[in-house]
Amino acid sequence: MTSYRDHHSSRHPSGLRRSVLTVPAINRRALDKVAGLDCDAVIFDLEDSVAPEKKDEARANLLAFLEKTDLGHRERIIRVNGSDSAFFRDDMDAVLACMPDAVLLPKVEDPDAVQSVADLIGESGAAEGLRVWAMIETPRGILNAAAIASAGRTADSRLDAFVVGLNDLRKATGVPAAAGRSYLVPWLMQVVLAARAYGLDVIDSVSNDFNDLAAFAAECSQGRAMGFDGKMLIHPAQIAAANTAFGPSAEDLAEARLVVAAFARPDNAGLNVINADGRMIERLHLDEAERLLARFQSIQDRKVHAT
Ligand code: COA
Ligand code: MG
User: Fold this and answer.
1) pLDDT of 61-106, one tens digit each?
2) Computed over its alpha carbons, how large is the radius of gyration of the chain?
3) 19-245 placed in CATH 3.40.605.10
4) Looking at the chain, which residues constitute the CATH 3.20.20.60 domain(s)?
5) I need a surface site. Which of 189, 203, 253, 303 has the fewest CB within 10 A?
6) What residues are paired with 105 via a beta bridge?
7) Are 25 and 50 in contact (CB under 8 A)?
8) Is the CB of 234 under 6 A from ligand 1?
């Protein structure tokens, strides 16, 4: 048996997508903040947070900003307007000029939406490492998540991550915002399952209330428990809680070290299942444990660089 990470070939080298901060490309003051923030990834938004008459200015901001700014370890993603919009072509030109790590497509509802953008990138020739991320934020997007994930993985392996968008989904379905997200959980889990089936990362939705950090931390824990890799964030105040919830806990680390130590013992060499103080551990746990320790190490390395 292989875990989802084994056949995941296109992950970002750090393996970290705990905190994915979105920033409106029209907001130069906010843009200038991101290089100093402790987030794993930044989504530069050209879509919902930018008014139609401001799209040109937002693209120009973004080009100038990315040209002059080194974002270090932070993964760079540009969210474009939908391919059916008047802005899409110019947005894609900006993407190809900026060469971020990924382009995020809004309201993806079928495999064609991913394939056509992968084709467009392929035809441009210059975009070897450019990945595609897909927002799953409409009823059809949720229903077709498995088909999108499956087709996207074979389309030159550009599809790399799903991001769930609950603001649009709530609007389209009439499910109101409520603590615990009870009625949304089945749909969220369906997206997680589709992502895992085809080796994609999956990022939980934004949470609009950036003042109630206790509620936000609870929602991060819930997202972690559902299997998400991280959370899309709207405000710098949300970064710390996401890094904590989606990073390895003290218990995770202790467990991973125990598993690695157990398999390192000479008398356990060649065994696939071992008895660790009355609990079975399997070799498949060793792979997970090693990956978790590697992720923890890259967080530690980053702290050293930051000081
Ligand atoms: N990225 C970087 N910096 C941000 C930021 C973000 N997403 N959101 C706020 N900041 C900065 C502000 O510029 C401000 O800096 P300043 O003190 O130097 O002026 C500081 O953080 C504090 O911000 P605050 O005053 O609390 O909020 P605000 O009124 O400036 O912004 C929002 C509130 C919601 C408008 C803003 O957070 C935002 O635009 N978020 C992203 C929205 C988005 O992308 N939506 C689309 C996807 S759902
Ligand atoms: Mg949206």
Assistant:
1) 999 999 999 999 999 999 999 999 999 999 999 999 999 999 999 9
2) 20
3) no
4) 19-245
5) 303
6) 134
7) yes
8) yes
